[in-house]
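Regression check, flavin mononucleotide case 239:
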Amino acid sequence: MSVLEEAVIGGCTDGLGRIDEIMAGRSACREFCDTPVPRQAIEHILRVARFAPSGANIQPWHVYVLAGAAKDGVSAALLEAHETSSGEHMSEYRYYASDLPDPYLRRRQEFGRLFYGSLGIAQTDVEARSRQTAKNYTFFGAPVGLIVTIDRRLEVGSWLDLGMFVQNVMLAAAGRGLQSCPQETFSKYHRILRPLLSIPPEQMVVCGISIGRARVQETKRLMPRANVDEFATFAGFEA
Ligand SMILES: Cc1cc2nc3c(=O)[nH]c(=O)nc-3n(C[C@H](O)[C@H](O)[C@H](O)COP(=O)(O)O)c2cc1C
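Current build output:
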């Protein structure tokens, strides 16, 4: 059984559906090659991703799609800010609870070990970690970068909808053989992104998504997942 099959069905002998393969095969790509992705491919991805469900079908998403000089201009401005004035910028929303309880704290610590371990970066090496963070702002070398925003007048329910849309974008990309990385790091520099992309004041920068072809095709999933019995409670099924 392939690693992918094990990831999905964990010992069962059923075949994998195409959609299962895409979901279990997607992972965050942080090293892209510069092979261009045509505008039509991104338009196709967005045409499919827009079928994400949303409460009362309000479709609370907006994306700024960047390539070429537009993307490079954004990267240069954010890299400069990251190097010279990082402490002066802050996201408009809080992604993580400040006091993370278990099991989330334990999982985040495991993420740190696996992620920095895979890059050969000691978790205490602040400069190397900052250099890795900086790579976010180059969209990890991807030819296309999306900046995703939401209207700040909407409530938390609409953020659920937005998450589904973001996942749809990444799955539609994977279905076309493209890799992606969702990136909350972009929200920190909303003050720089706003004038560069003409983002209206009511829109809040939520995240970015890098899209392209991986420099090296990953054969093994880096980030594990909890088993189903750790997060699902069943009732009413026959034994
Ligand atoms: C909304 C969101 C924001 C994220 N932001 C970043 C980011 O800023 N930089 C980054 O390298 N990875 C980011 N990630 C990727 C996560 O670290 C990754 O999804 C997680 O470790 C699980 O790994 P996998 O997606 O490869 O399975 C983000 C993921 C999500 C869903």
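Comparison notes: The longest strand covers residues 203-214. The pocket of flavin mononucleotide is lined by residues 27-28, 30, 111, 136, 181-185, 207, 223 (CB under 6 Å). No diff flagged against the previous build.
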